[in-house]
Design brief:
Blueprint lengths: L11 H28 L7 H16 L5 H4 L3 E2 L6 E2 L4 H9 L2 H18 L1 H32 L9
Antiparallel strand pairs: 1-2
């Protein structure tokens, strides 16, 4: 007999449904683009920019204010990260859209799928998103350096 779960529980089959949707989309992308990919294969040199593009998309969806509209149906207080709401599939999707690594897998499917389906458009979108990711890293690095520069070393007298 199956245990009673709380109102906000997620069952293993809920995750299975999400995985099945991902798998079906992956198979669909492969089947729909295999001839085009034979003519214009994705080169190794494209993987880093595509990875950066995936980072940018997943961060926007899982963390940024502008991604609130994606999270809102599945997450309480979506503008501040939030916690998954509802139960079963709704809650499982809420867990997915608040996890940047989880969204990263779906974002990668989108970025790679777009590149495979329409190489020129895929490269352009990848370039824009990768540049955004580089900017994000540069801004974070600058903020970190500024914070370090403003710290008073222990060996200097404090005012």
């Amino acid at each position: 007999m199956r245990e009673q779960h709380s109102r906000d529980s997620v069952e293993p089959e809920d995750y299975a449904v999400i995985n099945a949707v991902y798998g079906a989309l992956l198979i669909g992308v492969v089947l729909a683009t295999r001839e085009r990919v034979k003519r214009d294969p994705i080169r190794r040199s494209e993987l880093v920019p595509m990875g950066a593009a995936t980072f940018a998309v997943s961060k926007v969806i899982a963390r940024e204010k502008i991604g609130t509209w994606v999270r809102e149906p599945f997450v309480e207080d979506a503008s501040h990260g939030g916690t998954p709401r509802g139960r079963r599939i709704q809650r499982a999707v809420g867990e997915l859209v608040t996890c940047s690594r989880c969204v990263g897998a779906w974002s990668a499917l989108g970025v790679v799928g777009l590149r495979a389906a329409s190489p020129q458009v895929g490269r352009l979108v990848t370039s824009v998103l990768a540049t955004s990711a580089v900017n994000d890293w540069a801004q974070a690095g600058f903020a970190w350096l500024r914070g370090k520069a403003n710290q008073v070393p222990d060996y200097l007298p404090r005012k």
